[in-house]
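FAQ: What does a multi-protein file look like?

Like this. Sequence, then tokens, then the next protein.
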Amino acid sequence: MDVVSSINHLEARNFGQDRLPDRDTRYDRADEVLEACGALWESWDADALVIDKDKGQFADASKIRYVNYAGKWVKTRGPLTVPRSPQVRPVIMQAGASDRGREFAARWAEMIFTLQHSRVDMQAFYRDIKARVAAAGRPPEHCAILPSLDPIIGETESIAREKQAYVNELVDSELALALVSAHIGVDLSEYPADQPIENFELEAGARGSLEVILQGTRAHGLSLGEAARRFATSELAPQVVGTPASVADQLAEMFHAEACDGFILTPTVFPGTWEQFVRSVVPELQRRGVYRTEYGGRTLRENLRD
């Protein structure tokens, strides 16, 4: 379950509000939502189901509880109308990048999707989150950090580079700027496209997306227009380019360098990128011993921690 605290004032209007609350308040409210959901998910004991047709009994009512959660924003009576799942609660995924968002992730997230511009940025994010998870009283290995990558694979290195150049040239500059504007909640058409974008505070929008754009402009001196074009191509996620073997080498190197616990693939071609990756790169990763060859658990959480 991907937990998002909302990023756009238009979302607030769908629920009768003029604007979103400030970022910290949104995460405070998200804390309450997950506290309430957690109580509801656990309102059935593991052995509450009876399913005895002869006695006409579906469940043991003594093993199903009201939860009566009451917070500042969220109140629920419960219990759920369905039995607990084998996982009890779904695996929680989160993608906050602000300081408050990272605190939220450290408390709740079992997977974190993150956009980072380079391996150095990945490593810094990795160290920060793992430290926060430990400070929150959770085992750091119970939170998998998964940066986004854009794999571009070719039969040879030169073919892969040609594919990269072709894909990157397809982006329309005006649409790219509109995409970034939608992500960060700021109309960037008011800013000079030929100059680097400066940092600014966001009341709404995705702070993580802005951070990646700022990383790109600082690292390579990109103008706003150039950064927008790259963001529209792969959300400024690193493009891992090469043959199946060299792509596997690059991924394994990042994994062993404690830049990540795995990856989220951002496809330039859908679904072709995923198909090519599974057929050509996964076997290479398996030969290196950094990708499983079978699944040992019955649930996503079991396999995530395996």
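And here is the next protein:
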Amino acid sequence: MKAKVLNLDNKSGGDDVELKDSIFGLEPRPDLIQRVVVWQLAKRRSGQHKTLTRAEVNRTKHRVGKQKGGGTARHGARSAPLFVGGAKAMGPVAHSHEFDLPKKVRALGLRHALSASLRC
């Protein structure tokens, strides 16, 4: 496959160059390109949003009142979610969003992306 050589001013930079058909001559597959792009974006996500759990809140873990005879509701620790200053129930936790993509699929996706960019 032949391609024109252009300089930075988008003018002809000389002779045509011969490109390999195994890399630049493929019919682009959008599904492969999409898999590689989603994989790259997922690796880039940090996932560092987090709230404090009951064990991490700086409150006493001692029982609030007596179990019986107090005339009020039974409560455990002040770090429980229903108290002011307590933890967040079922809050976000830090985790990674990345997943594995086989090396051959990554390479094939790159070849299809290069083929698609040459066709435009």
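Q: Is there any per-entry metadata?
A: Some entries carry free-text notes. For the entry above: The two ends are 15 Å apart (CA to CA).
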